[in-house]
Amino acid sequence: MSEKSTLEWYRRKDQPRYERFYDGGYGGDLLFRARTKSLEHLAMSCQRGNASRTRKQKHNNSIAFKNTMHDTSKRTLSINSLEISEVCQRCQEVVAWKVKYKKYKPLSQPKTCTRCHQKNIKDAYHTVCLPCGQELQVCCKCGKKEDIVAHKAPSKIEKLQTMAELETEVKRLSERKRRTYYRFIEKLEGKVKPRKKPGNTCDDGVVRSEEKEDKEDEAPLNMDEYFRNARQKLEQLMKGMEDDDIDEEFQDLKLSSDDELEDDEEDSDEGEES
């Protein structure tokens, strides 16, 4: 039934109250139809989705989305290799979602930090620069004090500078301490295989949980932990070397005092004989 015939039908039924909702326009047509069906259609629903729906999703992809399937440009590849660091767990998931589904928009120029007010932000969606975030221990995206998922890895220049500083300090050590330090570094790098401990097995022949825990603890270290452990070991060796030097000085003083006492005794004996 057309709109014109519908209006004439209502006029024949002597129902003029519906005519004021029809003014010939698109909006008037909607109001006319809504009025004829029910007044409930005029009220807008405030429900956020169908929470009680039991049916499965109507459309489901057979192949997962891949952002490099049709786009293998340098920009897409550089965004995929992006390092998401100095952010909390939620912000890390948000940025990772943007990268995965090609919604990530990198910055064209540095952004201003909300803490130091300097143009130091080079990562998109960040509000705090890396130095301020590390100093204040806050998330660089949301600015809240949350647990940081991953820290920024040092650059190649920073790695070389740190290695050079460690080497200059190692040269000050004695030969024995130096070998101890290099053995520790080889263990950190995983070049030395750990010695096998005797298997702690029960009567049933089942391996105890201690060996399983040891296997779980053997995980590769990142560069931050590597340099931190190397620095701590070097400080321990330097402190031990200082303690050894102090002990040697005390021994030298003791020996010199003993020699002086012996000389005094010999002089006194010679005086008595004369």
TrEMBL record:
The organism's place on the tree of life at top rank: Eukaryota
A Pfam cross-reference name: DUF2039
Alphabetized UniProt keyword annotations: Coiled coil
Stretches the record annotates as Disordered: 194-274
Coiled coil: 156-183
Biased composition (Acidic residues): 258-274
Biased composition (Basic and acidic residues): 225-236
Protein's recorded name: Uncharacterized protein
UniProt source species: Chionoecetes opilio
